[in-house]
Amino acid sequence: xxxxxxxxxxxxxxxxxxxxxxxxxxxxxxxxxxxxxxxxxxxxxxxxxxxxxxxxxxxxxxxxxxxxxxxxxxxxxxxxxxxxxxxxxxxxxxxxxxxxxxxxxxxxxxxxxxxxxxxxxxxxxxxxxxxxxxxxxxxxxxxxxxxxxxxxxxxxxxxxxxxxxxxxxxxxxxxxxxxxxxxxxxxxxxxxxxxxxxxxxxxxxxxxxxxxxxxxxxxxxxxxxxxxxxxxxxxxxxxxxxxxxxxxxxxxxxxxxxxxxxxxxxxxxxxxxxxxxxxxxxxxxxxxxxxxxxxxxxxxxxxxxxxxxxxxxxxxxxxxxxxxxxxxxxxxxxxxxxxxxxxxxxxxxxxxxxxxxxxxxxxxxxxxxxx
Length: 371
What we know:
Elements: H1 2-17, E1 29-32, E2 49-53, E3 65-71, E4 75-82, E5 86-91, E6 96-99, E7 112-118, E8 123-128, E9 132-137, E10 142-147, E11 155-159, E12 162-166, E13 176-181, E14 187-192, E15 207-209, E16 215-217, E17 224-228, E18 234-241, H2 257-265, E19 273-278, E20 281-288, E21 291-298, E22 304-307, E23 322-323, E24 328-332, H3 334-343, H4 349-357, E25 365-370
Parallel strand pairs: 1-18
Antiparallel strand pairs: 2-25, 3-4, 4-5, 5-6, 7-8, 8-9, 9-10, 11-12, 12-13, 13-14, 15-16, 16-17, 17-18, 19-20, 20-21, 21-22, 23-24, 24-25
């Protein structure tokens, strides 16, 4: 009951406290989640099938930890966060093409934080040093740079004729998670910050583009997934009801990540993350205890299924790195994959071929989870 009341307050506060167009209530689905309900839990994996792509490994193409993967018609754009931010580009067969240069020269990047694709303009967009959007054509040629002063952001997406930014409280003074900047420079802010700790990184990101041009937004502290529209409005789309086990009811009490993580390990349920919207199915990940759960929600019927198995023959992937119109994307170390296959010999011909191709010193392997 307390969780439901807090959710109501969050929605109400979001409607009347943001600058510009408010968060409005509209048609949204309420998704009750009970991880002890045998009618909801299933032994079937989230993904029925998978594909994979080996990426060329060389001194120039070597990748760190993959944070984002975006596919265009003939390119694969990969952003790695650790050990240093970099943007590398491959073709659809995995052959290395080029990297965007780092430095202080014309058209170079200081420290990239996120990437996006403007498909209409056929441009690669890079969020650099938290406050500048740098544009390149798909061959890596610099076009221009626009700075959004006073906005330390970590994720962004092209939305309508503007930009949607997410601020993870880098400075410690963030009041709103979301900012939408339209083509005239006008800013609207949404989703009041919940919790007091600084600089959290949502591995897998917090934006998921939809077929109709909108963007689903999931963020720390909210059991509600919002829909941002091209007209710059934001409203609830999916409301998760975890009963008394939802972590959202306690967010205001946390001063650091330690308390948050301890409550999750004790059995509270995390906010939904790693979203994917494929046709009428909403996919998501939850964490409770020391375990991840994977949800499949049928929007048409309202039916929910939850499993603790992501793939039938692959290890659990740590977080999504992207998505296509019919697949969720992950990146996994070939060393981790080889060790898993040693303990869990693959049965299908596809998994056996993947095991054979694993080069323990090679680049991460892209995995496409398909339903």
